[in-house]
Amino acid sequence: MKIKEIIVVEGRDDTNRVKEVLDCDTFETQGSAINKEKLERLKKLNESRGIIVFTDPDFAGKRIRSIIEKAIPEAKHAYISSKKAVDSKGKIGIEAASKEDIILALKKHYTPMKREVYDINNELLIELELIAGGQARLLREKLCEELNIEYSNAKQLLNKLNMYGISKERLIETMDKIRGENNDRES
Q1: CB 121 within 8 A of CB 158
Q2: Which candidate, 104, 123, 14, places its Cα nearest to that of 60?
Q3: For a FRET experiment, which of 103, 161, 166, 175 has its CA 20 to 30 Å from that of 4?
Q4: Is 80 exceeded by the pLDDT of residue 186?
């Protein structure tokens, strides 16, 4: 069962640990310096799927939580105590928590996702020259910028588009717009 909301964590180790336990998508803050661009992406994710802030029970985690709470007051928050999120070396973090404790922290907040049928697939991305083409990287950069999502390589683009709830129709319209701008410049 996939979780509807996006789980907001601090880094890759947290993502790996949470994904060991639950079928979910995550957003990594990559530290406590959350800029306006990341907050805008989080707002967008919150509007489309909802977010659950699940940061480390330390100073940096509390700082991240506070920044997000001010910008997105309706965001959900899941907590785990520092006693339950400490490894054998004394390092505190979500990645050190047991599977049971992670489930207990999140289960009060998440919504099981209805099986969604995504209408974007790799064949469409190839057809739109977003994968495996001489201009693929440049087109992906322009697409991600136009959609206001973080840049994704060819392997991750499909997941990102689905995570943000981008429809096939919107993708095609956006690519037509990008191609129109390119044609205008070449004229």
Answers
A1: yes
A2: 14
A3: 175
A4: no
